[in-house]
Amino acid sequence: MKEDTVKMTLLFDFYGDLLTEKQRNCFDLYYNDDLSLFEIGEQLGITRQGVRGNIVNAKELLLKYEEKTGIVGRFSEMQKQIADLESALRTLFDKNGFSGDEADGILNQLENLKG
After folding, report:
1. Position 87 pLDDT exceeds 60
2. CB atoms within 10 A of CB 19
3. CA separation for the pair 67, 84 (Å, rounded)
4. Cβ distance 85 to 107 under 8 Å?
5. Which of 26, 33, 37 is nearest to 59 (CA)?
């Protein structure tokens, strides 16, 4: 369940603006605020079933957008490659005694790329 939540919130970060306002609100309250369907329904003035429908529809749309564009997958792969490169550079710098402002600057640039 935790992995699904992380994946869904990442998809929501990228594609959430493409959802309807109701879908966006229900999804955000469910995944990001960890509210129950009942609590969301009370807050938004809709039935529990309406909340569930909005979340299911939003989830399907987010997965469809990712299937078509692959943006989140490419972003995640890029983040992994940057982390691997940073690790390799740290090892190389440590092995060769390379340190100081120049090394720190390079590593900081990589860290900034990761966001």
Report:
1. yes
2. 21
3. 26
4. no
5. 26
What mean pLDDT comes out for the span 71-76? 94
Quick one: what percent of the chain has pLDDT higher than 70? 97
SS3 readout for 42-55: HHHCCCHHHHHHHH
Q: 21: which 2 tokens? A: 């306002």
Whole-prediction pTM: 0.78
Under the banding of pLDDT at 50, 70 and 90, the label for residue 13 is: very high
Kindly list the domain boundaries of the chain, sorted by start residue: 2-69, 74-114
- CATH of 2-69 given 3.40.449.10, 1.20.58.1480, 1.10.10.10, 3.90.25.10: 1.10.10.10
